[in-house]
């Protein structure tokens, strides 16, 4: 019974951790939109803009990835089961 | 269903494992990741030796031109983003980039990507971390390096130390998380498509698992592999380069 509760709570927690994807989604979309604007204004600088945008996206993505890692830990390497 | 043979087409259940332990040497686990890393290293070393074999100044062969193009591109990128003082780091960047790309792209062959193991990306990120600290000490001197943590005011010292430690953590988790999520999502997709085929009565031959995963594989294997290798290298360059900037930029 206890194990079932812990497993259910872990599954819910993993789902909640995936909410962390909202922030990076909005942020990256905004960054890509701005990059498109910049390329539209100055097409000759598209290489540098794209490179910078990808790095910025990668940095913005890390919070989402933290949430993903927590979800993966809860699903596949649950630390709470061992504490029962 | 009902077939007695052990061989099954499609994925019957969702199995996501860490790298399997192949064998043990003196109590150390030699995992799948280690062996595949050796394979990747052997392939890269072989390719490099092949491309730089029989080089000539007057009659360059096609492979020599490719090799020269690679070296010039990497040198140019390092010079652009790190300054010409840091050109010594170019081989390291090329190594990390090629290792990361090949390590991620072996998933196309159905093998477990090397970069889907946290120990691999953590190792690279730690190398980058120590490289950043070395570059900072070289730039500021030992005393200036220690004093640099309490800038702009002494109150911020703990925050500065945390932000310094956060660099390898975020770099390694970013690369690992992207590749590992690809593994998990591919596995889930195989399971879903197999179940869909079963539901429509095609239990012996899950027809939906043909072709459809390949489309997602283009994103999760090819695009993510290239992108993460590029980002890891670029972030390493940016961090090390800003720790040891060019003289004229520093003043």
How many helices of chain A in DSSP terms? 3
Query: CATH homologous superfamily of chain A - what is it?
Result: F1F0 ATP synthase subunit C
CATH class of chain A: Mainly Alpha
End-to-end CA span of chain B: 73 Å
Q: Largest interface, with Cβ-Cβ < 8 Å? A: A-B, 14 and 17 residues
- Average pLDDT level of chain B: 84
Structural class computed from helices and strand pairing of chain B:
mainly alpha
Major β-sheet of chain B, in short? Answer: 2 strands, antiparallel
- The coarse overall form of chain A would be rod-shaped
Q: Helical content of chain B, roughly? A: 55-70%
* N-to-C series of helices and strands of chain B: EEHHHHHHH
Could you characterize the architecture of this molecule?
The complex is a heterodimer of chains A (84) and B (251). Chain A has a single domain (2-83), classed as Up-down Bundle (F1FO ATP Synthase). Chain A contains three helices and no strands. With 84 residues, chain A is mostly helical. In chain A, 80% of the residues lie in helices and 0% in strands. Chain A has helices at 2-17, 22-41, 46-76. Chain B is built from seven helices and two strands, in the order E-E-H-H-H-H-H-H-H. With 251 residues, chain B is mainly alpha-helical. Mean pLDDT of chain B is 84; it is low at 1-7. Helices cover 66% and strands 4% of the residues of chain B. The A-B interface holds A 51, 54-55, 58-59, 61-62, 65-66, 68-69, 72, 75-76 and B 16, 170, 173-174, 176-178, 180-181, 184, 227-228, 230-231, 234-235, 238.
How would you concisely characterize the structure shown here?
The complex is a heterodimer of chains A (84) and B (251). With 84 residues, chain A is mostly helical.
